[in-house]
Amino acid sequence: MSSIGPDGIQWDLVVVGGGNAALCAAITAAEAGARVVVLESAPKTYRGGNSRHTRNFRCMHRGPLSVLTDEYSEDEYFEDLLRVTKGKTDENLARLVIRTSEECLPWMEDHGVRFQPSLSGTLSLSRTNAFFLGGGKALVNAYYNTAEDLGVQVHYDADVRHVGIDANRFTHVEVNLEGKTTRVAGKAVVLSSGGFQGDIDWLADAWGPAARNFLIRGTPYNKGVVLRDMLDQGANSVGDPTQCHAVAIDGRAPKFDGGIVTRLDCVPFSIVVNQDGARFYDEGEDVWPKRYAIWGRLVAAQPEQVAYSVIDSKSFDLFMPSVFRPEKAETLEELAGILNLPKDAFLQTVDDFNKGCRDGDFHPTELDGLATTNVEPAKTNWARPIDAPPYYAYQLRPGVTFTYLGLQVDETARVSHSDGQYENVWAAGEIMAGSILGEGYLAGFGMTIGTVFGRIAGKEAAAHVG
């Protein structure tokens, strides 16, 4: 084996991963004086993990802050999290993330990230989420520029295969680089290599054969190799392997790496039917940012893991457009044929739904209480008849962003094992997010977890080696 760096240098900090959490750790440690190397498994063109597909950061604030309006308190933020996770969260860690998010936004701006006002459409997040100018790719590029200015050494196509642990202490990683196995030694390590969603076999082991029909909207380079290696060596795990950030995306999206543009925001203004032409859940349960992440699992439970979101011309301009054009028909009968749905069953579903709609005020950007009556399942908001041609439909499939099975950490981001804690191993980002996200998801919260714990891990690791 050979070593990265002159004369077999032992780095102060080895950062495994190249996304938001990894870069926040690397920058923080480098600013504290540590010699840092970042090992990114993707090629340079695809650097940044899932972070390059993101577009916003959920942030607590006690008054207007940067592009954020009004206030978003710790308690309200935590209640939002409890609602989507159904209470499956570590309150101590969750509140740590929420409280610290307020100081993160200025830090992000100080390190090259630029923000813009909330996007229009159904999101309505101007109070809770700060949107990146240029999206996640711009954020990733800004952080890489900052890291390199600080002297952080970055290696791409660096596929870490093993984390060396001796007597509960990190010693080195083994990485496939330029066709050979290379040993990279360090005084400390931050593991930020994401979940295992890129490994379809692992997904199928957890979910069953249905997982082979899932689409992976995030990076294909997160295969969970480092996660599995650490678990095999006795690291404590958190989270359920069947829980993940999974949304309903356009069924025409690529198998991997479709990103944010494949997401569909039309569900609240539609009826969603499965291949039998039947509805199966309340499309108007809550505002979309608090409910979009449940729809991946809902669709995953349907036959062939497929569903269809059906709207009429009244709703066509109410949501962010998809990268793909919808199917279009002048009649519902014609639409059923295009979608290969059982015509009679589909038409009966639409008719029953329409009869259950009632008069009332429709408000697309807020809960309006415009609900159906005598329809199962009910639609509790934005329920308007599907009766104005032309009619449109989008195919839905589960799109997995990241999995929640991960490494257990404490409030200092240090990784634990059965007998205590590793002396010099920290984790940040998706690889430890299962501590906070037991299930469900809040828009922008993954970036918040990664930013907060990335900075914590970098600070703690630098203090350890200093």
TrEMBL record:
Its cofactor is FAD. Keywords: FAD, Flavoprotein, Oxidoreductase. Residues 12-436 form the FAD-dependent oxidoreductase 2 FAD-binding domain. GO terms for molecular function: oxidoreductase activity. It comes from the Bacteria. Pfam families: FAD_binding_2. Gene3D superfamilies: FAD/NAD(P)-binding domain (3.50.50.60), Succinate dehydrogenase/fumarate reductase flavoprotein, catalytic domain (3.90.700.10). InterPro entries: CobZ (IPR012831), FAD-dep_OxRdtase_2_FAD-bd (IPR003953), FAD-oxidoreductase_2 (IPR050315), FAD/NAD-bd_sf (IPR036188), Succ_DH/fumarate_Rdtase_cat_sf (IPR027477). PANTHER family: FAD-DEPENDENT OXIDOREDUCTASE 2 FAD BINDING DOMAIN-CONTAINING PROTEIN, FUMARATE REDUCTASE. This is FAD-dependent tricarballylate dehydrogenase TcuA.
